[in-house]
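Many introductory courses stop at the sequence. We go one step further.
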Amino acid sequence: MLEMLLMQYKDMFGVDFPLKNFTESREIDVINILYDCVLSNTPYKAGQEPEGRITDAPGLNVERDREGL
């Protein structure tokens, strides 16, 4: 999901999403920020907080995915 959103962001805005600024962030927070940008057609602004629209995505909880839950 993250990779798809990163590609959509680059296609929409012509620049890469500043992923290097999020090394300490949870992946789901980055996904939500990217989703907000793509959904609203608005590039990322420093300090933008995620809306929390997506609470879980495939691959985020490896143990649960392994157990098939």
